[in-house]
Design a protein that fits this description.
binds alpha-D-galactopyranose; 11 helices; alpha+beta; four-stranded antiparallel β-sheet; 12 strands; 386 residues; single chain
Length: 386
């Protein structure tokens, strides 16, 4: 992270030096789609792209935020107790300020400059990175030591309460705990984690922006959460020890099929089968069987399209193209659904050609300016005293 550049940009904007610079990365989830809010295990990795925040404390009783990506400044009272207008980007930071104050941190006011190379809406969890980076910067200014796990939870609560997004913990956790050349196996039930080496020899990890984010995405996410809970309630009626889909295997789910409607059953089937794929993926990753890992990604994509029903025409088209390209081991959409990014594992020698074919057949005809790019697992969030 270039803390010096961020500090200079802060000074140009606010006319003084910042007290701290913090950076938090985005994430790509290798496998474990929509499993986090069902108490299962997920396997994301942090990327090099990050949100960088420079901040200085003051005693104005106000938070002044400047976003370089949006070229917009916004100001609100530190005494925040409710979100601002719905959909506004500053709500993430309002949530973080509220969370820190609830924890007893004295925040008398601050100026915050937000930059970095993880633009809002890029599909790699810029919102989690924004919450984590501002949380770390403000905690540092308040003299608080907050462990990464608690920071991830604080960031998640901010999204729940201030951005109205009932997300799981994966994005925030990955942003806090990223490690170079490793994926993070997160157990979302007890919040333990372990690192799994992930430097696929001879394979490129490509992120392909779909260039779309359909408006129904957020409402649909919440509906999926509700469906999963409905499935748990139906199963738990006969088996009270079941508290989440983590406690359910395919046999039990099939046995309970008659206790729920077909849609609820298919939503649960995606989750239960995806949990099995995560276990398989960890095994094959440890053995270096990248072909099998690729096959698991294709299976996840099919399950997301058919059972979870969160794909869309554009993603289906892109996946169709990828399936026809030589050298693609596997690909799947990542994130909440209905657009965002696709992750593809591609034989290194074929990656440039696949990228060109996508640009020619997917991005150019749709006038989408974003382009596929390579990523590799990178370190988690950090703070630099300046
Ligand atoms: C979004 C949420 C995550 C997770 C993914 C789907 O990124 O923020 O918590 O549920 O979708 O895997």
């Amino acid at each position: 992270m270039d803390a010096g550049l961020a500090a200079d940009a802060f000074e140009r904007h606010f006319g003084r030096r910042p007290g701290v610079v913090a950076a938090a990365p985005g994430r790509v989830n290798l496998i474990g789609a929509h499993v986090d809010y069902n108490g299962g295990r997920v396997l994301p990795f942090a990327v090099a792209q990050r949100t960088i925040v420079a901040a200085a404390r003051d005693d104005s009783g106000r938070i002044r935020l400047y976003s370089q990506a949006l070229d917009r400044e916004i100001e609100f009272s530190v005494d925040v107790s409710a979100p601002g207008p719905s959909g506004s980007w500053d709500n993430y930071v309002r949530g973080v300020v509220a969370g820190l104050r609830e924890r007893g941190q004295a925040i008398g006011g601050a100026r915050i400059w937000i930059g970095g190379d993880l633009p809002p809406g890029c599909g790699m969890s810029s919102s989690a990175a924004l919450c984590v980076s501002t949380g770390m910067a403000l905690a540092h200014l308040a003299g608080a030591e907050i462990e990464p796990r608690e920071m991830a939870q604080l960031a998640q609560t901010a999204e729940h309460a201030y951005a109205g997004m009932p997300c799981g913990i994966m994005d925030q956790f990955a942003s806090c705990f990223g490690r170079e050349d490793h994926a993070i196996l997160i157990d979302c039930r007890d919040l333990s984690h372990e690192y799994v080496p992930f430097v696929p020899a001879g394979v490129s990890i490509l992120v392909i922006p779909s260039g779309v984010k359909h408006a129904l995405a957020d409402g649909a996410y919440e509906k999926r959460v509700v469906s999963c809970n409905k499935a748990v309630a139906a199963i738990a009626a006969g088996s009270p020890e079941v508290r989440s889909l983590r406690d359910v295997d395919m046999e039990r789910l099939n046995a309970c099929r008659g206790a729920m409607d077909d849609e609820t059953f298919r939503r649960a089937r995606h989750i239960v089968s995806e949990m099995e794929r995560v276990t398989a993926a960890v095994d094959v990753l440890r053995r270096g069987e990248l072909k099998t890992l690729g096959r698991l990604l294709w299976e996840t994509q099919d399950s997301l399209r058919d059972d979870y029903e969160i794909s869309c025409e554009e993603i289906d088209d892109m996946i169709g193209l990828l399936r026809k390209c030589d050298g693609v081991l596997g690909a799947r959409m990542v994130g909440g659904g209905f657009g965002g990014i696709v992750l593809a594992l591609i034989d290194e020698g074929a990656a440039d050609s696949v990228s060109r074919q996508l640009v020619d057949s997917y991005h150019r005809p749709r006038h989408i300016e974003e382009r596929p790019f390579r990523v590799r697992p990178a370190a988690g969030a950090s703070v630099v005293r300046v």
